[in-house]
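Bug: token stream looks shifted between consecutive jobs. Job 1:
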Amino acid sequence: MKKFLIAVVFLCVLSLLPLTGFVAARSYRMPRGLDPEEGVSMLQDLEDVPLDEIQKKLDVIEQQRLEALARAKRELKTQEIISLIQAGQLSYRKALSDLYIAGDSLMAGLEVYNILNANHIFAEVSASLHHLESNLSKIVAKHPPILLLHYGLNMISTGDAQLNTFIRNYTSLIRQLQDKLPKTRIVVSLLFPVDRSKAVSPEFGRIDDYNSALKEMCTTLGVEWLDSAPAFGGSTAFYGADGIHLSASFYRNNWLVHLIRELEIGA
């Protein structure tokens, strides 16, 4: 019996490894796949393990295999959606019909450039958390399946006290949303990077600190975050003269593709 279980474990490890190579891990949503060296080491140790412990290990491997397979299917589906958009066969408005957004001018750009439905966007220039608080009832009335929030760039400061106040107030507002919208998937957008050759104010040097605090807040609240930095690819070509605001092509060709892939919208 033990040899049979060890053989099953070995086969499961073999079946899992191709999937873990295919599926890219995203640390805040999915656990990492089984590392090949860990798998080999585990098999070598099984001879001295009781049968019930072998079964537990087998259950863990099977769960990882199923998660990796499900993740691969979701990634294929989202890639199909992205391909249809890029081929002009599917609009962002239709693909992102479940998405609602609240935030500052960086989110207002999606309306200004006529990319997403205006009635799905609650955003204005220079918006602070007061904007979210003022629009809370309107957002709740929409019962959004997915709600993306982007606030903070207009409130960023060099002082720690201001950062702590920002996180405390943001936490309170998100808890209100969670209470009123228990079925809504809430996603907090980390602050967008800026072009520091143009956006030279010292407070922009604290974007990483604010983003670290936002991640901690999201972990505490049990909500997701979206890191948009990879959508820039290290380039500053998408920025306007102020080094903050972005071109229509960035949203269409970079950010929304990144958003669909990371949030697995439509999968």
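Job 2, same session, no restart:
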Amino acid sequence: MSPDHASAAGAPSTHPGLAPGSLPLSVPLVSRTVPVDPASLPADLLDLLPAQGGLAWVRRGDGLVAWGEVARTTTTGPERFVVAERAWRTTAAHAVVRDEVRVPGTGPVAFGTFAFAAGSAAASTLVVPRVVVGRRGRTAWITTIDAGGAPGPGRVQVTPPPSSPGEVTYAEGALDPAGWQDAVARAVQEIRAGRMEKVVLARDVVARTAEPLDPRWVLHRLAADYPSCWTFAVDGILGATPELLLRSEKGLVTSRVLAGTIRRTGDDDADLARAAILAHSSKDLEEHEYAVESLLRALEPFCSSTNVPETPFVLHLPNVLHLATDVAAVLATDGDVAPPTSLALAAALHPTAAVAGTPTEAACDLIERVEGMDRGRYAGPVGWVGVDGDGEWGIALRSAELDPADPHRLRLFAGCGIVAASAPAAELAESEAKLEPMRHALATD
């Protein structure tokens, strides 16, 4: 197949927050989805991405990759989800869709990433790409999208491999290790004083690459090292999240809750013993229970039934072990009311106790007071929504945010759930374990 990795065509836009050539999300979209032979695609869909500006949501070789830009919406503040969801509903209602495949992810899709906090200065975005390539099991497709006119044929080609970022140096972020441990100690005091039950504190580290960073270098390594995670790249934030905020598909909602973590040793027998310790740790089980209850409370207004396993399982990742629970729910139906979109559900679920704490308002207030930084889009929803409202949204964990003004600079993030039994030194060690995926993805060895 021939290459077509050009950005969106058309006259440069003067609309604030739009990339050159893209339009506000409210424009009419015309899309065409056709099947392709899965054998004609590379085993790794990330091989199709351009060096810059690509979009990705992949897991175990399946998912979506995209490039070009037809339209976007950019929002900030407390209404960021509402504004974006309203814009997408309007766009979807007027879209002209020719879909010859009709599986989740076909037709027009928008990739999104949202700021963690309502008061964040970071922009939240929904981006409609020009070309989307998807694979789901033995089904593969290509979608082309345009604004107002019939889209041309989609063409894809394996792109040249990314170049190494060279030597990577690291500097402390908002707080150095001692300062962050002090923040953890303050949080423990607040919890023991009864002001909250749990809070999730994050820290950042600044990385600088010798060569301009090609995001694909990071994405390929993350996907290879963490195939069970969702590897993502949306508008300058990238990572491999183990936590699925939600998948909404034909009335069924599923979610994976992670809370409670222990670092791996690299020795299989020792790690099995550590998994048993984690599964019976009162501190970690307490943290996990808060996260599951938080999710269920948020889902309850939208669902007619839920299914929650009695006990969590231990999720084994190369760097850490997590307590995990997979929750399933059925959306309530009302013939007169359209079901909520996956983006609306993501807005209702965010922030969960797994990334904020319990009670949420008190935890978020403490985060603002002691973290010393704007999280930006770290720990916010990231994923995609389809024209039918279905979609997948993860939590932007194990991630980094690129500096749009400096191709050598990016911020890495990690967070830990703090409860009454937390020890600052242990939490710092856990945060270092959670930074390891991004550090290794940047390395040149």
